[in-house]
Amino acid sequence: MSRSAVDFIRKNILEMAGYVPGEQPQEAGYVKLNTNENPYPPSPAVGDAIVEVLRRGLQKYPDPLATVFRVEAAKLLGVEPDWILTGNGSDDILTIVTRAFVGEGDYIRLAYPSYILYRVLSQLQNGAWEEVFFQGDWTLTNDFLASNPRLKLIFLANPNSPSGTMIPPAVISRWIEQLPCPILIDEAYVDFAAESCVDLVKLSDRVMVSRSLSKSYALAGLRFGYLVAQPHIIEQLRKVKDSYNCDALSIAGATAAIRDQNWLLETTRKVIRTRERMTEELRALGFDVVPSQANFVWCTRKDRPVKPIYEELKRRKVLVRYMDYPGWGDGLRISVGTDSEVDCLLERLQEVLSTDGK
């Protein structure tokens, strides 16, 4: 009898669990506050740009380097276009960087708790990972910079998920000379924060910064992200990416989005205002809420478990993200929605908390 194709799959793939994204219900009627999407529609310029591409046709391959986007992003960031690599969402960027730096038996380092995908990317390479726990105030000790001869890459989500907290760029700049290997600073949520680490890329080729258009630019459905790194690093990473990893529609839409900085400023201000109100209201309901610099908040409680609260909210068609980190604890990560969505969340939470759900 011939063997199943499964028998030929690499052992490390068979043994890994894989990354599980947040729930994406297909049924209508949910207030969806579980995957950190922007609650507002993108800049109108995005749709216009995509329609223009469709008018011209899709019969030809897109620009493999997304040059028009890189030119616009470079102007915005104060670098040259050859400092930028584009990807099919920032997850594609993280994958490219991991494939380039991490081989079999190599290690990555990450703060904990943070974005679980980093582990998965290492597993795909048949590599390993080591975690440095955040302290209670969401800072990191010098253990994050400790030497390890098998360490090839450090990931730092900044602002972090699930906490929404941030390591200040001034602190990271003092780390640069102590870094045992390259560090990728994942700034998926940085447009909701007060500072960015992008200027640190100019100080050392060991610093790379990734960005996403999914959150602040409201383009989660388009899938577009990019990396800022020194040109000789970008040159090597281009060898690893798929030939045409960004399609013509996403390139046009992403370029139109970053050109509309007025839309970005107005929208992020709305999200931040709602985030601050939501934080105060959740605290009034008895939640411990970490001050956030992202478009979500991290909520815990001392008086009752939070998983039943998540389950009751879901039953009432309000989705938040329940997250459990072994060795650290669990909590609810709640995305910032529109004011009406947040009002609905708070109303349903009051209903849930008024019942004996302990």
TrEMBL record:
InterPro entries: Aminotransferase_I/II_large, HisP_aminotrans, PyrdxlP-dep_Trfase, PyrdxlP-dep_Trfase_major, PyrdxlP-dep_Trfase_small. Its EC number is 2.6.1.9. It catalyses: L-histidinol phosphate + 2-oxoglutarate = 3-(imidazol-4-yl)-2-oxopropyl phosphate + L-glutamate. The keyword Transferase applies. GO terms for biological process: L-histidine biosynthetic process. It is an enzyme of class 2 (transferase). Pathway: Amino-acid biosynthesis; L-histidine biosynthesis; L-histidine from 5-phospho-alpha-D-ribose 1-diphosphate: step 7/9. The keyword Transferase applies. It comes from the Bacteria. Keywords: Amino-acid biosynthesis, Aminotransferase, Histidine biosynthesis, Pyridoxal phosphate, Transferase. HAMAP family: HisC_aminotrans_2. Homodimer. Belongs to the class-II pyridoxal-phosphate-dependent aminotransferase family. Histidinol-phosphate aminotransferase subfamily. This is Histidinol-phosphate aminotransferase. The lineage of its organism: Bacteria, Pseudomonadati, Planctomycetota, Planctomycetia, Pirellulales.
